[in-house]
Design brief:
Pfam families: DUF2408. One of its GO terms (cellular component) is nucleus. The chain is an all-alpha fold. Among the domains are: about 80 residues; about 80 residues. It is built from 15 helices and 2 strands. A hairpin with a 2-residue loop joins strand 1 and strand 2. Helix 4 runs parallel beside helix 6. The radius of gyration is 26 Å and the shape is globular. The protein starts with 14 loop residues before the first helix and ends with a helix.
């Protein structure tokens, strides 16, 4: 799991901390892998306390050092521990507590770095990240009194770094004239869509040519090689759009030429990344029923290691030769797409323990069905509501004193599940009331 290029701690005082964290990480991994029972808060919290204890020791050891010079194997193991704890907090439904923020913060940092490196992104990308960062800051603020200052300092530093990167990206977009934004968004979409076609199991030239038609429409918008406004004046920020347009033309040409075939020197990395991307894609479809948030750790680490193996930003072969532009962009697209999937899966994680997820998912499905019935005009008579009422009653009868138990445990997420149950009851009541009202009017 660890990269062989990572140096061991130089300070002998760090060695005992490393050994303790290795044992803690092993315990966290065992907990993650154990599918025989539901993970509970009481399984996670002692391990969290162990990690925080070692962080405080490490801060004492490094107090006088330049921290930029101390990143070694211990830091990687510590990151593993925090990632696992963060994902375990999500798994037990404690999404709104500070430790749960860590994994999402590191994923956002990866995404922001890649967006900055790629040089193309849409305002929608940034809006989503900005909203998530704001929510994460609120979570940290609420948790300030409940968790260690060492953790809060670490999280605040991560969030601040993410925000600075996001601000830089936003500044670049702000340079665009508003009338150029639609063209810019289209070009970003074309680049990504071309990369997606390039990585399909069956390559389609017609799909790429359709994307090139979109490029032609944007090219036709220019007059004498310039994007101009109604008054004929050149639009602000057009150089960026023109460069992006040129990049799109070149990329589609390369993709058409290669027909989905990557340089064989990088075939192994390509297949690994395609497999990761496809697995994450499947998880995004079946998330509510099959995802255990801790499962994302393996994908995160695989991606991190591939990403970190680049030399000066380039993928290199066994003898150190860099990849050509097609292989480079293809592999980067797969990495970025996979990180985006992980981000989407993390932000859509429900604050409900995995022990309660079966009930939560049933209620979500029931709510969706009831809303569809309501939107389609309601029911003709009360009898049509019997199946929904029976299902709601069967779920309601699972509660003891208003709580859902699993064995002798009261899992996290009671509020969310009870709110969903109440909402379903309300919709049934509205549908039944509408039937009564219609009967009275007739």
């Amino acid at each position: 799991m660890d990269s062989p290029a990572i140096p061991a701690p130089l300070d002998p005082n760090e060695q005992p901390i490393l050994e303790t964290l290795l044992r803690t990480r092993d315990a966290l991994l065992l907990l993650k892998r154990d599918k025989s029972s539901y993970i509970k808060s009481r399984d996670v919290l002692p391990l969290y306390e162990e990690v925080i204890g070692e962080v405080e020791k490490l801060n004492g050891v490094r107090k006088e050092e330049d921290r930029r010079m101390t990143y070694n194997r211990l830091d990687y193991i510590l990151d593993d521990c925090f990632q696992l704890i963060s994902l375990l907090f999500l798994t037990v439904g404690r999404n709104n507590e500070a430790p749960a923020v860590y994994s999402l913060a590191t994923t956002i940092q990866r995404l922001v770095n890649h967006l900055e490196e790629a040089g193309f992104y849409s305002s929608k990308d940034l809006v989503s990240i900005a909203k998530t960062l704001a929510s994460m800051r609120e979570t940290c603020e609420r948790s300030r009194e409940s968790y260690s200052p060492a953790l809060m300092t670490l999280l605040e530093s991560r969030l601040e770094k993410c925000q600075r990167g996001l601000d830089r990206l936003q500044q670049d977009l702000d340079r665009l004239d508003p009338s150029l934004v639609p063209a810019h968004e289209t070009l970003v979409s074309v680049l990504r869509s071309t990369a997606a076609v390039n990585t399909r199991s069956k390559f389609s030239s017609s799909d790429v040519n359709a994307l090139r038609n979109q490029l032609k429409k944007i090219s036709d918008m220019m007059k004498d090689g310039q994007f101009v406004g109604p008054d004929g004046a050149p639009l602000r920020g057009q150089e960026h759009v023109k460069l992006l347009l040129e990049r799109c033309w070149k990329w589609t040409e390369i993709v058409l030429e290669r027909q989905g075939h990557i340089d064989e020197r990088f075939q192994e990395q390509y297949e690994r990344l395609v497999d990761i991307r496809n697995q994450l894609d499947r998880l995004s479809v079946t998330q509510a029923w099959s995802l255990r948030e801790t499962d994302l750790f393996v994908y995160q680490r695989k991606l991190d290691r591939i990403d970190e193996a680049r030399v000066n930003g380039n993928f290199v072969d066994a003898v150190g030769q860099p990849a050509d532009i097609h292989a480079q962009r293809t592999l980067l697209y797969l990495i970025r797409r996979s990180y985006a999937y992980i981000y989407a899966l993390l932000i859509s994680s429900e604050p409900v323990s995995e022990a309660l997820l079966p009930v939560h998912n049933q209620l979500q499905t029931l709510r969706r069905c009831l809303l569809e019935v309501k939107d389609s005009g309601g029911v003709a008579n009360s009898r049509e509501l019997y199946p929904y009422s029976m299902k709601l009653n069967s779920i309601d009868n699972m509660r003891v004193d208003g709580k859902f138990y699993v064995g002798n445990d009261i899992p996290e997420g009671q509020g969310s599940v009870n709110a969903l149950l109440a909402e379903c009851y309300d919709i049934v009541w509205e549908l039944r009331a509408a039937v009564v009202e219609n009967d009275e009017q007739s």
